[in-house]
Amino acid sequence: LEEIPPRPVQDTGNILKQGYLEKRSREHSFFGSEWQKRWCVLNRRTFYYYANEKSKQPKGNFSIENYSARLAFHLRKDSRKKCCFELTCPGKRTYEFTAPSPAEAEDWVDQIQFLLKDLSSLTIPFDEEDEEELYNDVDSSDSVNTTSHNTTLNQDEPNVEIEEDDIYEVLPGKQPKPE
User: Fold this and answer.
1) Relative to the CA of 82, which of 31, 71, 109, 131 has its CA 20 to 30 Å away?
2) Do residues 115 and 69 make contact, with C-beta atoms less than 8 angstroms apart?
3) pTM of the model
4) How many whole angstroms separate alpha carbon 39 and alpha carbon 78?
5) Is 3 exposed, middle or buried (0-12, 13-18, 19+ CB in 10 A)?
6) How many Å from the N-terminal Cα to the C-terminal Cα in the chain?
7) Who contacts 81 (Cβ-Cβ below 8 Å, separation ≥6)?
């Protein structure tokens, strides 16, 4: 049986971006570092973070739907402040990250924003199940249209069907052959 998410790093599905980031911990411990290195994986809907790239269980994950991503230089005061970005959503936890470089931080933000545009677009199916339901809906409406279309045809051309019946009766019937 397959496990339902959370998943090991290798099984997170269609990975759009992955790599090491430093994530700010929610509880700022007096002894511990407030920034912890995490292997982060972004797929079509979910952001996962792991202790490292070989971890079987994520330290956490969240659906990125309704989040927004932006560079956030105010998160750090040191030389890496231009490497910071945050994911925010009204009424939900804000996630704060530091990338290895300013270019990497921008790339994470760009990838997440691109994905959020896809998620908010109604023209792109979110997953195969939605696509299948959509297909079934189209299928059932087609059969309704076909039925009404055939009925219309039969009413328009009653003579053709009668002629066809006459033809079929003549052909298979055995007539005496001239001797």
Assistant:
1) 31
2) no
3) 0.61
4) 22
5) exposed
6) 77
7) 73, 74, 75
| CATH class of domain segment(s) 15-121 | mainly beta
Domains of the chain, residue spans: 15-121
Q: Which pair of tokens denotes residue 73? A: 């230089």
How far apart (Å, rounded) are the C-alpha atoms in residues 22 and 34? 9
Rounded Cα gap, residues 132 and 146, in angstroms: 21
Which among 109, 59, 117 has a CA at the least distance from the CA of 86? 109
155: its two tokens: 């009413």
Beta strand spans in the chain (E): 17-24, 35-42, 46-50, 60-63, 68-71, 84-88, 95-98
pLDDT in tens, 4-35: 355 566 665 689 999 999 999 977 666 666 89
CA-based nearest residue to 104, from 76, 83, 78: 83
Q: In what order do the strands lie in the sheet with 46-50?
A: 60-63, 46-50, 35-42, 17-24, 95-98, 84-88, 68-71
Closest CA to 108 of 13, 38, 32: 38
Residue 48 has a CB neighbour count (10 Å cut-off) of: 24
Residue type for 89, please? C
Q: Shortest CA distance to 10 belongs to which of 45, 52, 65?
A: 52
